[in-house]
Amino acid sequence: MFNYSNNGITVSSILDSRRLTKDNLYPIKIRVTYQRIRKYYATGKYMTVEEWEKLPGTKSKKMQSIRLDIQNSFDIIKAGVQKLIHEDGFSFEALNSHLNKSTSDTLNAGFKIKIQTLMENEQVGTHLFYKDAFRSVEHFGGENISYASVTADWLKRYEKHMLKLGRAYTTIGMYCRAIRCVLNDAKRAGIIKENQYPFGHGKYEIPTAKGRKLALTLQQIKSVVNYSDGTEATEKYRDLWFFSYLCNGINFADMLTLKYSNIRNNEICFLRTKTARTSKLKKEVCAVLTPEMKAIIEKWGNKSTKPDDYIFGFLTGKENLFEEKDRIKSVTKSCNKRLSKIGEILGIERLSTYTARHSYATVLKRSGANIAYISESLGHNDLKTTENYLASFEKEERVKNASFLTNFGD
């Protein structure tokens, strides 16, 4: 509908029919093409194919308003391209930097740019999280939240709003950190000044949830591993939980994407998805392939053992990034349901897939393992992260040790 071309660079508004939303709509995007490379920029608008075809000549006020919004997005990107052509410095990196400065005059726009960037980087999990956070922020503040309005008082009111909706402090803290990240981008781009920044001591401090004791004792772990109600599903998810525990507390997303090529010299070696993109140094995590892990693979693993085949056959390799993410979430959810039932029967609170990781780290610490070894085996980038990770699990140990102080042996 809107098109511009100059110096081998084209800018077009398009209906992106590559991916259909759950509402059977397609996103409208601004596509920039340069040297056969295409980049897509979200407008925040969605339509059916029929609506898109009627849009140029529509007389509907609602549709005319949408068309104007699309044109505004197109004009902003076009202006950026023209500026960079004039300065003889066009690149997608330069365009993205320019757009960060020119379009993020609202918190909404800042979120959209963040979400778009995460999508382009194929960071599906983080992309979906920011979309959830953005929906929450818009539900509270509307579609045109100026940066100037995001004050400490505004954030406190947002926190109260979330509490009234029954949201946990864990969720509130995560969403507030997303807001802070967007504001940090705006501050770096010079859009907001330091005195406008609402986070920090004496301003708004992001709430933190009380640490939950998620680590199990060896006796509790043994009771989980030996539990059975006679059903295949329970035994399968129980064994997957045990495999996660034995495999250095590997999270389920990384475990379900393990391939037979990850098995080398009787070890399973992998990169943590969570830190692979953000860390300059790509550290492999290696876990010894124990007899118990081999037995679980033999029982539940993919019978085809080619290097590119997944060890556990929940994925086929034909999924796109979103389908893969959905499949992993579905398996994790099913496993957590089973674990919750097992926990109720065994008297273990909050038994979940995440408990395996906490238990792995804590059992090693209680057994006297070196903190540096625990840190490396968890895939943490520094010891401080590991120390903070373990700190909240040891109250029970401190209470026990305190009792020794008055054990006079009367």
From TrEMBL:
One Pfam family named in its UniProt record: Phage_int_SAM_5
Keywords attached to this entry: DNA recombination, DNA-binding
GO biological process: DNA integration; DNA recombination
Key word DNA-binding present: yes
Keyword DNA-binding part of the UniProt annotation: yes
Top-level taxon in the UniProt lineage: Bacteria
Domain Tyr recombinase, chain residue ranges per copy: 211-404
Molecular functions per Gene Ontology: DNA binding
Recorded family membership: Belongs to the 'phage' integrase family.
Protein name as catalogued: Tyr recombinase domain-containing protein
Organism of origin: Sunxiuqinia dokdonensis
